[in-house]
Design goal:
Blueprint lengths: L8 H17 L2 E4 L5 E4 L2 H8 L5 E2 L2 E4 L5 E4 L19 H9 L5 H23 L3 E3 H6 L1 H11 L6 H12 L5 H21 L7 H6 L2 E2 L2 E2 L2 H15 L1 H16 L1 H9 L4 H12 L5 E5 L3 E3 L2 E3 L4 E4 L1 H4 L36 H16 L4 E2 L5 E2 L9 E3 L1 E3 L27
Parallel strand pairs: 2-12
Antiparallel strand pairs: 1-2, 3-9, 4-5, 6-16, 7-8, 9-12, 10-11, 13-16, 14-15
Helix pairs in contact: 4-6, 4-15, 6-7, 6-10, 7-8, 8-10, 13-15
Length: 419
């Protein structure tokens, strides 16, 4: 247990088994890796921590009171790039969240779904006539990027750069740090352009740039940080969900057929896929004052990794957790977190996934994945995803007429997110 390392290739290959072993042996185990940290694997322990922002903080640079400063943040070890309000604590995090939270309500997402459907159809149209697809390169990478950029009010022509950068950064590919730095520069250029020439389109970006903190306009640095956080949260975790889901159904055709019989089953099915695949492997907290969790005493400055994927497989909460039950109810999974830092996109990703599943069920239901050519992330410290997933299917016809010269979806004009 003291050598547990969520950055290791071994963890990527057997994370379910490793988490199960930790849950059974010690739900609050300690690892000597990465400077030392605890790993919480029990559902109730993780819930306790998520709902106690006073004792378990997300912020960086925690003053330990003895001249030492804990690095903090929501990753172990601390990420090189700050993650916006994810790495802030109340009341500041909640004040910033309030500026844009209206764009992430269930109603707002429902109003956006026609635009989301257009982007889903466009992605399928790109491959439908060929009879072949790579679920990562052709769907799982572009679709979440297009939807996230569009929803935020960012230029769609940046989708490939942003998606590729975040995709490779998730599994720490060599050189990905430089690409992230370039991406941050690109976001900064967009912020400056929008500040100089506001569109007044009601988008998330415009709401953010017109927002205030302590009576002052949101600073440029903070705006860049918050946008990066939203992009990071909206793109690669959904990329992982998409790839994991289609790989699962390729191996469980009976459940695929069951879903095809009645598309009203999609919402519950998507929720279960989000639980089972657990795209985000975990988040971290720093102990702000002495506290006890699951019988283990934690001291100021201790780092704790919350193994969300383990909580989602806790048999004290979920019956037969290692089985996918597409009609599972209730389904109190923690894939989106819980408490004051619950994921802003908790309504966006399920809607996106449901529309995509429906589109594939209708247009390429007989897809089969070439499993010998599937390539998983070599490490999954943050996101449980794939690099390649080629497949074949019976070719079909396009449904969206016309593509712009720059190869982006039609009818771009005003983003539907602003309507």
């Amino acid at each position: 247990m003291d050598q547990f390392d969520h950055h290791s290739p071994e963890f990527a290959e057997s994370w379910r088994e490793q988490y199960a072993g930790l849950r059974a042996a010690c739900p609050m185990a300690h690892s000597e890796k990465h400077g030392g940290f605890f790993v919480a694997t029990d559902y109730q322990a993780i819930q306790q921590i998520l709902h106690d922002p006073q004792n378990f903080v997300c912020g960086r640079d925690l003053d330990l009171g003895d001249g030492r400063i804990a690095s903090g943040g929501v990753t172990v070890p601390t990420n090189a790039v700050r993650m916006g309000m994810m790495e802030m604590d109340p009341p500041r995090s909640q004040a910033l969240r309030k500026i844009i939270s209206g764009r992430f309500t269930k109603r707002a997402v429902q109003e956006y779904q026609p635009r989301m459907q257009q982007l889903v159809s466009w992605c399928i149209d790109k491959v439908i006539e060929s009879g072949s697809i790579d679920f990562v390169d052709d769907i799982a990478n572009p679709l979440p990027a297009l939807i996230t950029l569009d929803y935020l009010g960012l230029p769609l022509d940046r989708w490939e750069f942003y998606a590729t950068t975040l995709h490779k950064a998730a599994y720490r590919e060599k050189g990905s740090g430089r690409a992230v730095a370039s991406m941050l520069d690109d976001i900064r250029a967009t912020v400056r352009e929008r500040r100089a020439h506001p569109l007044d389109d009601g988008s998330v970006l415009e709401q953010l740039l017109s927002g205030e903190e302590n009576g002052e306009p949101i600073s440029e640095d903070l705006a860049v940080e918050l946008i990066f956080m939203l992009l990071n949260g909206g793109i690669d975790t959904t990329t992982a969900l998409i790839a994991n889901s289609f790989l699962y159904f390729d191996d469980h055709r009976d459940q695929w057929e069951w879903l095809a019989e009645d598309h009203s089953r999609l919402p519950a099915a998507v929720d279960e896929l989000i639980r089972y695949t657990s795209p985000s492997t975990g988040v971290a907290r720093t102990v702000a004052q002495p506290v006890e969790v699951a019988g283990v005493r934690l001291d100021i400055g201790d780092r704790v990794l919350l193994a969300l994927g383990s909580a989602n497989a806790d048999d004290q909460v979920f019956d037969n957790p290692n089985e996918v039950q597409l009609d599972r109810a209730p389904n109190r999974h923690l894939s989106f977190g819980s408490g004051v830092h619950r994921c802003l996109g908790a309504f966006v990703a399920p809607a996106e996934m449901a529309l995509l599943l429906q589109e594939v069920l209708n247009r390429m239901p007989d897809y089969r994945i070439d499993r010998e050519k599937v390539v998983a992330y070599p490490t999954i410290p943050l996101v449980n995803g794939y690099i390649a997933m080629p497949a074949t299917f019976t070719p079909g016809e396009k449904v969206v007429a016309g593509v712009l010269a720059d190869d982006l979806p039609i009818q771009l004009g005003t983003s539907a997110a602003s309507r």
